[in-house]
Amino acid sequence: MRLSEARREAARRLTAAGIEGAARDADRILAAVLGIEPARLRIVDDRDLADDELARLESGLAARAARQPVAQIVGFRDFYDHRFRVTPDTLDPRPETEVLVRAALDLPWASVLDLGTGTGAILLSLLAARKGTRGLGTDISGAALDVARENARVIGVAACFAQADWYKGVTGRFDLIVSNPPYIALDEMAGLSPEVREWEPHSALTDGADGLTAYRAIAAGARDHLAPGGHMLVEMGPTQGVAVSAILADAGAETRVIADLDGRDRVVLAQFPG
């Protein structure tokens, strides 16, 4: 099968499987098989695919038809300025989380604590963008931390990582605390797409309760781990701005809600006076 034919057939198969954005996803999978960027599929020489390439393409298309996320199939997601390894042990970094990174880079800080670091996307993006800073990423999942450490190595960023349940075992103070915690309420899980509900780690998606448990823990430990004048940035669901702001305000913070590029509430910025 020639590359052009394989590309058309891949898009057709994913369309028939009901995959939204089928052509885009087919191109991402085919490009990963060939070891090129998807945009290059339009300009590379049309040629016969090797048997092993066809086999890997078939495997990737079957996985996508089963609703496995493309990032898990190809093994990476581009986020902010870097490419991050993604596995079923980590959340797939979302474009909207880049709002938190940009907000953090507008603040003064030399040290950062990332609670629930996952792939390390937030922490490593920040450290790479601001040379000479230091950071610690924590996660309750040892498997996720392995992915974060590998991402740090590949990107070339020096970062520390520790297995921890929020602040447990974390010492010292930081100029900035960031987190994209599990914020989906248990009763909302059934409404998620199969790509998220069936393939991403539930512990990184939901607290098994009202979706606000993590914010209560993060707010409770903020004063003990923030340097004087330090800031906190937490991502949230688009309907949680009032609730998350109230939790942080009750802990003594001054808060401001930041919207994402679609105009939805996405991040709360908090500062604890004194």
TrEMBL record:
Q: Which residues form the Release factor glutamine methyltransferase N-terminal domain?
A: 5-75
By its UniProt entry, which Pfam families does this protein fall under?
Answer: MTS, PrmC_N
PROSITE patterns given in the database record: N6_MTASE (PS00092)
Residues annotated as domain Methyltransferase small: 97-184
Q: Which Gene3D superfamilies match?
A: DNA helicase RuvA subunit, C-terminal domain (1.10.8.10), Vaccinia Virus protein VP39 (3.40.50.150)
Single GO MF annotation: nucleic acid binding
Top enzyme class, one word, equals transferase
Sorted alphabetically, the keyword list is: Methyltransferase, S-adenosyl-L-methionine, Transferase
Q: Name one GO biological process term.
A: methylation
Enzyme Commission number(s) from the entry: 2.1.1.297
**Catalytic reactions on record:** L-glutaminyl-[peptide chain release factor] + S-adenosyl-L-methionine = N(5)-methyl-L-glutaminyl-[peptide chain release factor] + S-adenosyl-L-homocysteine + H(+)
Residues bound to substrate are: 180-183
Binding site residues for S-adenosyl-L-methionine:
116-120, 139, 166, 180
Identify the HAMAP family for this entry. Answer: RF_methyltr_PrmC (MF_02126)
Concerning NCBIfam families, the annotation shows: hemK_fam (TIGR00536), RF_mod_PrmC (TIGR03534)
Annotated PANTHER family: HEMK METHYLTRANSFERASE, MTRF1L RELEASE FACTOR GLUTAMINE METHYLTRANSFERASE
Please give the family membership noted in the entry: Belongs to the protein N5-glutamine methyltransferase family. PrmC subfamily.
Q: What does this protein do?
A: Methylates the class 1 translation termination release factors RF1/PrfA and RF2/PrfB on the glutamine residue of the universally conserved GGQ motif.
Q: What is this protein called?
A: Release factor glutamine methyltransferase
Task: Specify the species.
Answer: Paracoccus lichenicola
Biological classification of the source? Bacteria, Pseudomonadati, Pseudomonadota, Alphaproteobacteria, Rhodobacterales
